[in-house]
What does this fold into?
Amino acid sequence: MVLGLSTLSKTMNSKLSHFSKTAGSGVLFACTAIGVSHLVQSTRAGADFGLMILGFVILVILLKYPFFEFGSRYANSTQTSIH
It folds into this structure.
């Protein structure tokens, strides 16, 4: 069965809409938590130290998460922006 272009477009739009509704807020939260400096520095640290710093990285992630969670909840409850 061959789908027409409009049917295929509607199907893809429906799937994209469903994905953005289910994963949209998580993706936005991840984008605020990860920046270009994180990507550059993490690859450099991985190249320099390898798995020696894995424990430190996990510790930092565990300590960093509550601040991002609190910041987004605070901004949402007070209807203000955090810059």
Summary: Residues 5-33 form the longest helix (29 residues).
